[in-house]
Design goal:
The protein has about 230 residues and is α/β, with parallel strands linked by helices. Helix content is about 35%, strand content about 30%.
Length: about 230
Amino acid sequence: MLILGITTSTAQVGCAIGGHEGILGSVHSTRGRRHAETLTPAIEFLCRQTRVELGDIGAIAVDVGPGMFTGLRVGVAAAKALSHARRLPMVAVISLDLLAFPVRHSNRLIVCAIDAGRGELFHASYRHVPGGVQRTSEPEVSTPADLASDLMATNDEVLLVGDGSLRHRAKFDGITRVELADQGMAHPHAGSLVQLAHARAIREDFVGPGAAAPLYLRRPDAEINWQTRDTVR
């Protein structure tokens, strides 16, 4: 089964195609946060380069966040549209899980942190387990200072991964036993999405299009601003 993976939860837009033979190809772009304008051409380019037709795809995998509100809507909406139009099963994967997957062999505590805007981070913690990595805390939103305090309180060696840690690295650089992963690990990779989704597809661990809802963790800026305006009035 070939799987098309779509990830748009951060400033990076990504898509990949793969299956039991591994990743056939992937496309990623971080220019200008133009998710809606970038995603469809990226998928078309990927299909041409891999010589795969959309009719050859057997399942759709999508990164459901947490992450950027607008980006998540674009990716999830595109995945649902493809799923409906072609009657394909879907696999939904949390963005923080995608960040942890490439560093799954680390024996350190893995903490993944995505920039949430407004001076906040979406984050979760992970541990290496036989065959992969296991999430040890649920995704949450907090300030970099709060996360730094939590890391200072632990006795573990920590690998901190994600664009959120890099954007607020001044909060973490002075903490002993904490290493920040480099820019190459900053965003969820569509190839990791396809790899994780393929394992779930083998188990037929699918979700219906209606169940593939974005994981926002907080209300969008527009809703908060609207409520604030009404309060001020």
